[in-house]
Each structure stands twice: as structure tokens, then as C-alpha cells.
Specification:
about 375 residues; alpha/beta; Rossmann fold; seven-stranded parallel sheet; six-stranded parallel sheet
Length: about 375
């Protein structure tokens, strides 16, 4: 069974990592499925899978849903022209490079592009279409003249939402034929934590952007009493706009001794186990890979009570969900209680076992493959 996995030009962030992990799991444990990869740009993902002897094609195409820009009319016209030109060029190229008659199923990794849906319709190939975000979070701009939901429903695709929160939003928008398959992470065999620091080590891993919530988290930290501040160390690890990082450093310069910024590295996941508490203050996570990664390493997680975080942090042993509509001082008192009670020191094994049972990449891919069985007539392992 040959499955064409499609991703756009992005090779960093949650969607790209999910794409990589999904295909790795297929390669390792589903020998009757042969992945074929189509990317819009030659990037780190292309190099990675080429090294693993996977069949990789790089043919440019563009998104039909994009992050909104101003002035809206100008950008919509410019990006629509780019989308249409790349779409025309894509079909001329793909038919000369890729033998689509050998493809049994198409799996598009992201809701922002529709090239997989067009291929599915043109060649009568079943299509799985992943939806990985709450569209309103990024003020997604539809470049097409028709409604984006009507456009998506016009193809005979099966949509997959990575959380109940995402499913509910897109179903309410009108998307049909959609089901829930929680995203998954690579589980690890890292050794348990060794010697602890004298400080309570707090990790905020992820993009340094306003939507990720660093600012509103630091507002809460600012309201902690000095005796608690003296006991904590916060590390922000991730990439982002220099302007936003400078803004945070300036606004919270009175906390300069307790927080630092570090660029993202491939060793970041290994470093999680060195911390006590993991933070994901994103305004609305579609899933929250980093939340699962924290828990899998036994960390107590501080998350937001919106998006998919409440679907992962389901009890007080796993973490604390912040209601950011409350005043920072009120939330600081709740955080202080958690720190004083040292709740992060207990239930590490419970948190790790819970994550491995519910959010492993193995479980995720098994459910995706079960979906493949439903929509095709091909044999599977």
C-alpha cells in the first residue's frame, strides 16, 4: 500500500514534527504501508527522509489558507495570484514526476493547503486531510473567492482533527466527515532525574510569540512574593521574533535574575527531564505536543484552561489549568500554593504512564491506519 504524505514548505513547529513522527512510526511498525513524500520545498524534512531511503518529491505549491496580513485586499490579491500560478505549474510537474496511478491513498498533513484534495479528486484516490489548528487563532485568511468550508467539503475527503476542541470548532463551521484522532508524541527511555538543583526549575518550551503566552505567564510570576521568586528559575527555550523577546526582557527587567532565553535545539526534548514544571500558556492549543512531552517526562504542567489543554491535563496530579481571565495576583496565589506544597515532586511516574497510554505516536498511528482501512479496500498489516 503506497500512501502519499503531503506537507507544505514548513519543516519546524508542531505540524512538521507530527508529520515526521507519523511517517517514522509507519516505517518502523507498518511494513505493508510504503510512504511516498511530497513537499513544497526542499528542506530538513526532505533531507531527513531521503537519508532514510524514502521516495521524496519536491514540487512547489502554496496554501489557500494563510495567516492574515494587512492591507488585507492587497495581500489577498497577491497571494491568490501566487496560489493559482503555483497550482497550474504543480499539475504540469507532478504528472511528469510522480506515477499517481501507483498511489493508493493521499494523506495531507495540514488544513492550510488543498493540493492533496485536488489530486484526490482528479485521480479518484481516497484522501485523509488533517486539521491541526483552531483557524481563528491565526486569523486565517481564505484566498479563494468561494467559502473555505464549502471548498473543503467539495472534495470527498475524510478530515481528522487532532483534538476534540479542534473538531468541535471546525464541525461548527460546517466541515463534514470529520473524526477525532489525538496527536501523539515519541515516547522515550530517558533516565529518571538525577541530582536536583536548589532552585525550582520551570521550563517554557516553544515559539517565542505573543500567541504562546509568555507575557501573560510572566505577569503571574511578577505577582509572586519575593521569597518565592528567590526559589525559582525559568528558562524560555524556542525561536521567535527578536522584537518580542526584547519587549519581554524590558517589561520584566525586574525579574532578570530568574528568567533566561535560549534558542531551540534538537537537544531540547532531552533537557525536559532536568526541570520540575513545564509551562504551556498558549491562548488556544490545537493539541499541545509540548504539554504531552512535559508529562511524559514526569513534569507537573501549568497550562491554560482553553483549547485542547483541558483534554490533556485532566486531573490535579497532572497539572494546573490557569484561568487567565482572573487577575494575575489571584493566579499567583494559586501558583504559590502549588510551589509551597511541592506538588511537582510527586506523581512523576503517574504522569509519564498516563501520557504513554493516551498520547503516544504508536497509538496515534494505529488509529490513523484503522482509518485508512475504513476508506480503502486495500489490505493492511
Amino acid at each position: 500500500m503506497r500512501v502519499l504524505y503531503i506537507m507544505n514548505n514548513v519543516d519546524k513547529g508542531g505540524a512538521a514534527l507530527a508529520f515526521k513522527d507519523m511517517i517514522d512510526e509507519v516505517l518502523d511498525n507498518h511494513p505493508k504501508i510504503t510512504p511516498v513524500i511530497l513537499l513544497a520545498k526542499k528542506n530538513a524534512l526532505a533531507e531527513y527522509f531521503t537519508r532514510k531511503s524514502v521516495e521524496v518529491y519536491v514540487i512547489n505549491f502554496n496554501n489557500f489558507l494563510t495567516t492574515g496580513r494587512q492591507p488585507k485586499i492587497f495581500w489577498k490579491a497577491a497571494l491568490l495570484s501566487r496560489y493559482l500560478l503555483s497550482k497550474s505549474s504543480f499539475f504540469k510537474t507532478v504528472e511528469s514526476q510522480l506515477k499517481l496511478e501507483t498511489i493508493d491513498l493521499i494523506h495531507s498533513n495540514l488544513n492550510r493547503f488543498d493540493i492533496g484534495a485536488h489530486l484526490s479528486k482528479r485521480y479518484s484516490i481516497p484522501h485523509v486531510w488533517h486539521i491541526r489548528e483552531h483557524g481563528d487563532d491565526f486569523k486565517l485568511q481564505n484566498l479563494l473567492l468561494e467559502d473555505e468550508i464549502e471548498h473543503m467539503n467539495s472534495f470527498n475527503s475524510h478530515f481528522v482533527a487532532i483534538s476534540q476542541s479542534v473538531l468541535n470548532e471546525w464541525k461548527d463551521k460546517g466541515v463534514k466527515n470529520i473524526s477525532l484522532v489525538y496527536d501523539g508524541i515519541q515516547t522515550t527511555n530517558y533516565p529518571s532525574k538525577g541530582t536536583r538543583s536548589d532552585k525550582i526549575k520551570i521550563l517554557f518550551l516553544g515559539g517565542i510569540t505573543k500567541m504562546k503566552g509568555q507575557d501573560r505567564f510572566l505577569k503571574i510570576i511578577s505577582s509572586l512574593p519575593q521569597e518565592i521568586l528567590a526559589k525559582i528559575q525559568i528558562d524560555f527555550i524556542g525561536s521567535g521574533a527578536n522584537g518580542y523577546t526584547k519587549f519581554l526582557k524590558m517589561k520584566y527587567r525586574h525579574l532578570a535574575e530568574i528568567f533566561t532565553f535560549h534558542p531551540y535545539s534538537e537537544k531540547a526534548l532531552e533537557q525536559i527531564r532536568e526541570y520540575d514544571i513545564g509551562v504551556n500558556a498558549s491562548f488556544r492549543e490545537g493539541f499541545g505536543r509540548v504539554t504531552a512531552e512535559y508529562l511524559e517526562q514526569g513534569l507537573f504542567v501549568v497550562g491554560a484552561d482553553t483549547g485542547a489543554s483541558p483534554e490533556i491535563i485532566t486531573d490535579s496530579k497532572l497539572g494546573w489549568l490557569i484561568d487567565f481571565s482572573d487577575e494575575p495576583k489571584a493566579n499567583a496565589k494559586k501558583l504559590q500554593k502549588i510551589l509551597v506544597e511541592e506538588r511537582y515532586k510527586t506523581d512523576q511516574e503517574y504522569r509519564a504512564d498516563y501520557t504513554k497510554a493516551n498520547f503516544s505516536i504508536k497509538r496515534h498511528v494505529n488509529q490513523v491506519v484503522a482509518l485508512y482501512k475504513e476508506i480503502t479496500v486495500q489490505p493492511y498489516d
